[in-house]
Hints:
A: alpha+beta, 17 helices, 19% strand, B: 13-stranded antiparallel sheet
Amino acid sequence: MFQLFLIAFRNLGTHRRRTLLLGGAIAGVTALLVILMGLSQGMEETMLRSATTLGTGHVNVAGFYKITSGQAAPVVTAYPKILELVRKEVPELDYAVQRGRGWAKLVSEKTSAQVGVGGIDVQDEPGFRQVLQVRSGSMDDLMQPNTVLIFEKQAKRLEVKVGDIVTIAAPTMRGTNNTVDVRVAAIAADVGMMSDFNVYVPSQTLRALYQLRDDSTGAIFLYLKDLKQMSQVQAKVRQLLTDAGYIVMDNDPRAFWFKFDVVNREEWTGQKLDITNWEDEMSFITWTLKALNGLTGILTFVLLIIIGVGIMNTLWIAIRERTREIGTLRAIGMQRTRVMVMFLFEAMTLGALGTLAGALIGLVVCVSVDAAHVGVPEAAAMFIMSDRLHLVVNAGSTVGAMVFITGCTTLISLIPSFLAARLKPVTAMHHIG
Amino acid sequence: MSLKNLLSAAAVSVALLSAPVALALEPAAMVQILSVIDDRQRNGGDYKAHIYLEQKEKDKTDNVREGFVYRRDADDKLMILFSKPKTEAGKGYLRLDKNLWSYDPNVGKWERRTERERIAGTDSRRADFDESRLAEEFDPSYEGEAKLGKYTAHRLNLKVKPNIDVAYPVVKLWVDKDTNNILKREEYALSGRLMRTALYPRWKKVFSESKGADVWYPEEIRFYDEVEKANSTIVLIKSVDLRALEANLFTKAWLESKSR
């Protein structure tokens, strides 16, 4: 068998131009696939990191509270008790934070914007400083009451800078209008779509605005040691809280603000908890990831068809040119299967070398682009939730791509190889070509 | 004028005449003033008003809406139905059993709303078109007299009563001394910040057979957003019809039928 491999390898060397042409094509497809996968995984990693710090935990204990059946607020009451229960019964938990949820009007002297207001205790938020890059001001100032963190785009729109006073206006849970004047304590770099609709204030400030008690919050964000256990933990928490006597809403895999219509239409009052995960809360944005993955698949499929046709055509030409050679080999006793395997080895070797070269090229491109911190247009930044392009190369995915493409090229060559093996020695030796 | 209103007016007159000029009004007199204001705007039977809403917002095109307000005060029922522009035709609000519903014929969907929602995105709210409930919801205190243009007005500071839900917990009223009509209204947030100012430049009255007395309504109301100072809304009540309305008018089916 090794002899067959040697023969195949030497044949590739004999037809250098053809080998380089096809190998280059295979390398190109592989490089493109690696780059697209890197982009997709980079997007997912960035999205996960940003989203699970700014807008959601890995698993969330959230919910709605209704004073009257027609008016829901995204509030969880008596959250310390829930948090204690979860910490006790969920060993997979790494840490947990509480996050207030509000929807208010942010008004400066020049203009206004409708924003989601997150209530945070910045000293209890280990991830916040890692995700947000503060351009001016200091995040530590958020420990002071009546302060706000806004993003660059918002600061530009509202025409404010660090130290300026803005007003947050919103109705309370009972519908009474309230306002709070806050000082801009920090301005952070934009984080895609999250930058447009979110500002952050101290939890106490948000509670004062909404006239909530100190044991009320918007949601409890649970961060797990291993993200792969998200589904199990979500189910576990759901069962845990149900057993503890809480009313838990049916699972609805959407962001919480998409649920207001349904919740407001229902007749119940009081508290209902809603157990969600980060994919639910970010479902409105992860469609871009699915679109990119779909595009990757389609593009790869089309390119593989082209490569397959090229390989088959090349092998047909090779078989025609080497008919006398095949006849000679058959005449001296080589079996049909060995002739077929020889051609298969040739295709497989070409595929393996091509994909290896392509993977290396893709790897270099991904690492270079990632290291260069290439900026992206604003429109793209909206969806990847970062203003820098981030590419991640996963060894397993890369090897999988190589194996996949090599396997495709080998399979494509089966037909011409099989037909080549079927040539009769007498016919082959008499062929004049 | 009905006997009740006559007695009310007499009580107010006695209170006013017995007090020295520029001295504070007694709490009972202030409550009586609020009761008169409320009662004037209430009708025993049905109420239909033809209104226009003009909205101005910063950096946006001004827009005007035409609509109708239907009320049945005896049952606390209210409907607001927009007729123009075409894009707004058929949209409306319906108050049923303490729930406020909005309807959009473009999607054929009813949505539950809060009582304090901005009507059609303007600075007006449901309570602005509904009967007045100042005496029920607020405790007044006297802040003195004030000149408002050519009018001399009582300045009243109203604070919401406990366990009452209103959009603005503190309201300052300028009440004309001669007519007891509201001239100006400032509405404050919980934080004490001025949120909205309303001016009532003209009042009109229509005789109601079902009530047996006049029903007053503001012919024009000007709302000014004090948080976003460039925003304002003008409400014009062009006409009021106090004849009986259809019995089944205050139903979802009736409102839906208007857009078919």
